[in-house]
Amino acid sequence: MMAVRSCLGVKFGVSGLLSQLTSSTRHHGSRPCVSPILTPQHRNTSSSSTSSKVKVDLDQNTGVAVMHMQSPPVNSLSLDFITELCISLEKLEMDKGCRGLIITSSQPKVFSAGLDILEMYGKSPERCGEFWKSVQELWLKLYSSNMVTIAAVNGSSPAGGCLMALTCDYRIMADNPAYSIGLNETQLGIVAPFWFKDTLMNTIGLRNSEMALQLGLLYKPQDALKVGLVDQVVPEDQVLPAAVKSVNKWLAVPEHARQITKSMMRKSTIDRLTSNREADIQNFVSFITRESIQKSLRGYMELLKQKKA
Ligand SMILES: CC/C=C\CCC/C=C/C(=O)SCCNC(=O)CCNC(=O)[C@H](O)C(C)(C)COP(=O)(O)OP(=O)(O)OC[C@H]1O[C@@H](n2cnc3c(N)ncnc32)[C@H](O)[C@@H]1OP(=O)(O)O
Fold first, then answer.
1. pTM of the model
2. CATH number for the domain that contains residue 148
3. Site residues for ligand 1, CB cut-off 6 Å
4. CB 184 within 8 Å of CB 218
């Protein structure tokens, strides 16, 4: 796993994405610019790949992959899980036959519980640094993806889970008031870093982000829809079919134009992290290893256990 992790550098420099797209590189040589719509008459050839925590089903006719997160109990983003996610994303990104990606959860009631708190509690500075680098890597891969990305949010999605959904082009959430989504970091006594904040602001605007972040708000699906944190709320059993329908719509747009537009919209946000990665890691490590922050995390974990008892 360590060896694989060290291979996880950004393969396609995100800062150069716009120019890569403009100069028509990997996606445009062999991928059609206008995509076929998913129709029943397509032959159903699909391939499936599974690592222990990530299952990917790719329909080769439609070019749409469904990535199922399956890291029990709550898809919390540990270093190992993030590494598997990054490897799967890298493979899909390089696969000319894959043009759309739906991300969903195999775990009941939870999309992702966000960053694994145990990765941030009682760990050495070196380990915290390695963990944070992987979190950056996952965000960069998702936010700069050339694929159409849809989050099929079929359960609660706090903090890092919400961030994953926010990196996608479109979010569909199950209409279940037991579920919530949001960047609730302040409720844990921690601070969402600037690139979490930027991703949220790019989606729901400055005023809503200010309230959401300071108060650490977790929104019920209908409230998330009102504020624009999700784009669609559908009955629970319709989340995946709705995601397939949406991916069709996005894939029907000429690919080259859509990719360049996506890159143009996201480039400055991506550049801000890529040019500050090391400082951001140092900032995280010095913040998270503070005794007062460790105490907050311990208190929060105890609260989670008490809620269960
Ligand atoms: C300078 C920058 C500094 C810092 C930036 C850091 C940014 C951090 C981002 C984050 O993502 S922090 C994580 C925030 N996550 C949460 O607040 C979610 C906490 N979890 C929940 O609210 C609930 O667990 C739930 C996701 C709603 C699911 O509820 P459910 O009732 O279904 O499960 P239960 O609570 O019983 O949990 C099962 C099991 O899982 C453990 N758990 C839950 N979440 C996490 C987590 N994020 N990390 C690690 N472990 C987690 C929970 O304790 C239970 O464990 P147990 O079975 O051993 O008791």
1. 0.89
2. 3.90.226.10
3. 73-74, 76, 109-110, 113-118, 156, 158-160, 184-185, 188, 190-193, 283-284, 287-288, 304-305, 308
4. yes
